[in-house]
Amino acid sequence: MRPAGHPLSPTSSLPPLRSLPTLTKERIFSALENLHELYCPVSLSRAIESQLELGKVHDGLPARQLDSGYVSENEDDIDLEGALDALRADNFERNFAIRWLTTLIARVEELPLNEEDERERVVDKASYVLASFAKAAEEDEEEDSRLTREFSFMLSPSDTPDFLKSPESDTNEKIKIDVRLHDGSHTTTDHTDVGLQSWGASIVFSDLLCASPARFGLTRSTLGSSPRIIELGAGTGLVSLALDKALPHLGISDATLIATDYHPAVLANLRSNIALTRASVKACALDWSDPILEAPLDAPADVLVATDVVYALEHAVWLRDCATRLLGPGGIFWLMMTVRPNGRFEAVIDSVEKAFLRASPDAADGRHLTILAVENVAKRRGVGRGDESGYKLFRIGWA
Ligand SMILES: C[S@@+](CC[C@H](N)C(=O)[O-])C[C@H]1O[C@@H](n2cnc3c(N)ncnc32)[C@H](O)[C@@H]1O
């Protein structure tokens, strides 16, 4: 009926449901076997295990080539694997198989089988394949929601003077800035890998930046040529990636964007997000508590940005001292703090104001950073965690 080890498509191999009462036992089990081989293939290790049980493996190696369906030694095998993968991914075929299996289970009494245990085997095999569909769907869903996030922000280039706009921005229409990135998977053992996810503040801040770039000084006339923008505690890099996409539309194609973080796993995820979006953002390690200003951090920044980076008492002072060393003359540090009014984060709510009341010991020429303006930003529906009540946006510059 079918060549050994080569499962057939459900539509071409399953007997019509109306013929169930007349099917032979062999035909029913062969059809179930075919679906099992197609949708629940045995892994190579399982195949070796079962061969071991049968005494056919010597010194850990199969005595002969295993017909697991997964050993691709030659091009024919590779072609077959490709064809089977395509067949497995075919939703029409899958739905056809699901309908056939559920009907088979519902009408098992009509099958011309003599023994009750044969009916049980039919139900067991059919249920096994159906369960594998449900499991695969669950895994797909979990993987998608855990890993890939897509953000869209509407960029208003209208407040940029026409002669400074890039050719792409020769209209006052808003431009959609799409950023697709991966939130890394959280470990339960390391409580410092919080930067593996994109926090509400980074989403709201990216949205504000795009909605009114001139307000944040993102114009050619404010930034001058070859501006340097550095993000502190970048996490997944959403803000830097959004800037990387937005700036060319504002006539700024020569900016150096540097996204920094101190956590190795967070930096690895950040680098992979930069590669994924093919962004021209540099990622580099920077610890606010002990900043080492080697290249590419060896030149002053025109703009510093940081979102949701104040969640321990020492953070604001570290950020102040770090920014004092990084920010160039006339530069601005945009800091968006998340307000979490309950629990242990309550203590840090005023820590930014308190930190910037005093000068950093690193302040040069008697100048120090100070808060030039602060604005309360409302929490947005569906953005950020439940314990966030809103955000404080600080505009920090030289006093
Ligand atoms: C709550 S996350 C916010 C991440 C990102 N800015 C966002 O809004 O999605 C805080 C970030 O600060 C980073 N961070 C914490 N302490 C740091 C330090 N001492 N130096 C540099 N980065 C630090 C963490 O690794 C993490 O990426």
Please summarize the sheet with the most strands.
Answer: 7 strands, mixed
Regions with little confidence, pLDDT below 50 for 5+ residues: 43-75
CATH third-tier fold name of the largest domain: Rossmann fold
Count of runs of 4 or more consecutive helical residues: 12
Which bin fits the share of residues in helices? 25-40%
- The CATH class of the largest domain turns out to be Alpha Beta
Number of domains: 2
**Structural class by sheet pairing and helices:** alpha/beta
Each distinct ligand:
S-adenosylmethionine
| CATH architecture level-2 label of the largest domain | 3-Layer(aba) Sandwich
For this structure, the quaternary state is single chain
Full CATH superfamily name of the largest domain: Vaccinia Virus protein VP39
Shape: elongated
Order of helices and strands: HHHEEHHHEEHHEHEHEEHEHEE
* Cα gyration radius (Å): 30 Å
* Percent of residues in beta strands: 15-25%
Widest beta sheet: strand line-up = 7-6-5-8-9-11-10
Query: What's the total number of strands?
Result: 11
User: End-to-end span in angstroms?
Assistant: 84 Å
User: What would the average pLDDT be, to the nearest integer?
Assistant: 85
